[in-house]
TrEMBL record:
Alphabetically ordered keywords of this record: ATP-binding, Cytoplasm, Ligase, Nucleotide-binding, Purine biosynthesis
Protein name (Swiss-Prot/TrEMBL): Phosphoribosylformylglycinamidine synthase subunit PurS
Localization per record: Cytoplasm
InterPro entries: PurS, PurS-like_sf
EC id: 6.3.5.3
Native species: Pseudarthrobacter niigatensis
Lineage of the species this protein comes from: Bacteria, Bacillati, Actinomycetota, Actinomycetes, Micrococcales
Catalytic activity entry: N(2)-formyl-N(1)-(5-phospho-beta-D-ribosyl)glycinamide + L-glutamine + ATP + H2O = 2-formamido-N(1)-(5-O-phospho-beta-D-ribosyl)acetamidine + L-glutamate + ADP + phosphate + H(+)
Gene3D superfamilies assigned: Phosphoribosylformylglycinamidine synthase subunit PurS
Function per UniProt: Part of the phosphoribosylformylglycinamidine synthase complex involved in the purines biosynthetic pathway. Catalyzes the ATP-dependent conversion of formylglycinamide ribonucleotide (FGAR) and glutamine to yield formylglycinamidine ribonucleotide (FGAM) and glutamate. The FGAM synthase complex is composed of three subunits. PurQ produces an ammonia molecule by converting glutamine to glutamate. PurL transfers the ammonia molecule to FGAR to form FGAM in an ATP-dependent manner.
Protein family (similarity comment): Belongs to the PurS family.
Length: 83
């Protein structure tokens, strides 16, 4: 069954305390090449049958109105992933 993947990230101007905690822990674990981290969310919507333009539009609408908080988050990706 195909899936629609939605990625949501905090807006650039919004503080990301989880990202700060991760970037602080990376050097202690030996990962020294990274200077910043932003943590986001990933949603996978399984579709019964074919993904039509209408279903993809519904996924984009759900991403903007339900899966993200538009005040502090951006929907950065909505894509179809075949099973």
């Amino acid at each position: 069954m195909p899936r629609i993947v939605v990625d949501v990230m905090p807006k650039p101007e919004i503080l990301d305390p989880q990202g700060k905690a991760i970037v602080g822990a990376l050097p202690r674990l030996g990962f020294t090449s990274f200077s910043s981290v932003r943590q986001g969310k990933r949603f996978e919507l399984t579709v019964d049958g074919e993904v039509t333009e209408e279903i993809l539009a519904q996924a984009r609408d759900a991403a903007e109105t339900l899966l993200s908080n538009p005040v502090i988050e951006d929907v950065v990706n909505v894509e179809v992933v075949e099973a």
